[in-house]
Inverse folding.
């Protein structure tokens, strides 16, 4: 499922290498912003609240989308709601996010995305021109991603009970025969590859929202990754794990994979491509780029024997030109991500609690 | 697509038997509550704003769900967002609605619903106990309807930018071979059957929200209709149209079918089952029961030769025990629904502008 995956089978707060949750999460009497941040608080909500309420085996899966059989076809199915603020930002809009976010969740199962649904929750009084601009962005993004918006719905809530436009998309896609990509398949020895420079989406949103200027303009990397994934699968169907590091950034994506497969991950900090503007902005704001959201990147766990060829295929694709090997999967410290610093030390990459910046997507 | 169907191919305001829209809809500069009401204003939004922006053939369809081919399977795919106020009401909750509404949209294509996605947009500060109660209602309704919640997402917005809990579900189901149920198939000679008493959902919501008392308590009819549809399909796969008369009530459902197929519909007002409490409440409030929302009823256009057997099968099902023939499909006055009053007169049943009561589902 998308973004709110269960981190542990037991539903307790993670306790990794002595790190434990500082808040009595189970006893949160009210929802806080961090419950929507895609980190530990989101995972707690899934593990302690949604999973017991819903039951069923699929929700217990940890992929970005559910993979299921229907009418003889193997389908991926995923949903995300979008509440990003502002609606339009450098490099994209809520409409682009709503298409690319769900398309990418499907692609992370190796599926070829095919159809999207789209539900609008509009706030009374929002300009219809704004709604039209969002709808046109949605349509253009869908055409670019090769998916069709097949069905939709619109609801309106009173002024003061929304924020202009909220969106939800759900998507379905076809998983090719022989493809089995999910977090549990991370295997010691796998090479960890990221498809390009990280942190652009989060810093772009932050800069426009807070009116900050970090030298050259920073644009969101918002993009549909299904075509890049198809190029990787053309090298080998045996990719182990794909994940798009959105809310919670690379840290959350790697942490969830490590927890799901009970493997260790070692990342070389120096190898992670961080653009200078992102590095500067993070330094000013006291942020770690590993935790900043991306909307057009993926991280892949690839069997070592295929790593060179997959990396070459990624670099040959416009959306993967800056792909880089950033680390490896190990048998040691299962469930934990460790980062080798440029100074020869190591640090543990904790799962984020919530999101550094609310309503990033 | 669900609830916001295009009413005319040209996107203009309907002009039926001299009735024309009193508002310059295309020029609405801001969204009004009626844009979410499932009536003419909603249809205008789809025809003039969403359809041109998205393109694609499926959205131009008029069913409650899109029917599409994927991996050799014929699937129905539908979505609805739910913003009902209050979250819990006599006979159900937003959780029940979110399951049954989407399950019913799938069933109205003759599909057997299989999987749902579920996206929450929570308002900061809402009690987690409330969220848990909604989630448990969702889970219970899904189990009752025989569908699995396969994937989900949670976002949180700041206090003052939501209303506790908004939900979206999307659903997929399998359309059996030989089944082709859609509004365009309405054919002169078809018998029009409704599956039971109308108006219960709308009046239940209205009474609890406005603190009105209409004698005996009125409960929402919220229920999943897939099993009832399966019983009807067991009689004949050749049902022409199915529709669940939610927002805008029976009037909107029949009006949309008449417009889509360019047929006339004649309804006998006396034959429409209206419970006394609904009739009383409507009399007090100045409402027409034909326009009041239902969440557990369907209207069917059935070829005359199968009508008796289908009606018998419906009456044998717990959710169709009060099924009744309410009218017929005719070649005259294409696009228009006419009601024969108990006094021997006739009146035109216009499409509603918006919803009598906002946020009914």
């Amino acid at each position: 499922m998308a973004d709110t995956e269960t981190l542990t089978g037991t539903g307790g707060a993670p306790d990794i290498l002595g790190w434990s949750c500082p808040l009595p999460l189970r006893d949160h009497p009210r929802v806080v912003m961090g419950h929507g941040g895609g980190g530990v608080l989101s995972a707690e909500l899934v593990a302690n609240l949604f999973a017991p309420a819903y039951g069923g085996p699929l929700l217990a899966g940890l992929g970005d989308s559910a993979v299921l059989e229907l009418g003889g076809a193997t389908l991926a199915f995923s949903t995300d709601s979008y509440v990003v603020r502002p609606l339009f930002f450098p490099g994209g809009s809520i409409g682009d996010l709503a298409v690319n976010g769900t398309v990418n969740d499907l692609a992370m199962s190796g599926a070829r995305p095919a159809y999207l649904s789209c539900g609008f929750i509009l706030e009374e009084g929002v300009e219809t021109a704004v709604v039209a601009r969002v709808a046109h962005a949605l349509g253009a993004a869908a055409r670019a991603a090769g998916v069709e918006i097949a069905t939709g719905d619109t609801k309106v809530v009173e002024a003061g009970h929304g924020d202009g436009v909220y969106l939800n998309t759900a998507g379905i896609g076809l998983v090719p025969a022989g493809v089995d990509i999910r977090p549990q398949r991370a295997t010691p020895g796998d090479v960890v590859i990221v498809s390009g420079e990280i942190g652009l989406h989060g810093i772009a949103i932050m800069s426009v929202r807070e009116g900050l200027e970090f030298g050259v303009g920073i644009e969101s990397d918002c993009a549909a990754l299904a075509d890049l994934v198809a190029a990787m699968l053309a090298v080998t169907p045996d990719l182990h794990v794909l994940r798009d590091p959105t809310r919670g950034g690379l840290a959350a994506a790697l942490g969830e994979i490590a927890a799901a497969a009970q493997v260790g991950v070692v990342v070389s900090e120096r190898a992670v491509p961080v653009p200078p503007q992102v590095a500067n902005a993070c330094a000013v704001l006291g942020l770690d780029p590993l935790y900043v959201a991306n909307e057009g990147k993926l991280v892949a766990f690839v069997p070592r024997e295929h790593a060179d060829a997959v990396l070459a295929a990624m670099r040959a694709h416009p959306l993967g030109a800056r792909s880089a090997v950033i680390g490896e999967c190990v048998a040691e410290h299962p469930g934990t991500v460790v980062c080798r610093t440029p100074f020869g030390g190591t640090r543990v990459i904790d799962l984020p609690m919530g999101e550094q910046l609310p309503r990033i997507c």
In short: The radius of gyration of chain B is 19 Å. Confidence is low (pLDDT under 50) at residues 1-25 of chain B. The domain at 15-174 of chain B is CATH 3.30.1330.10 (60s Ribosomal Protein L30; Chain: A;).
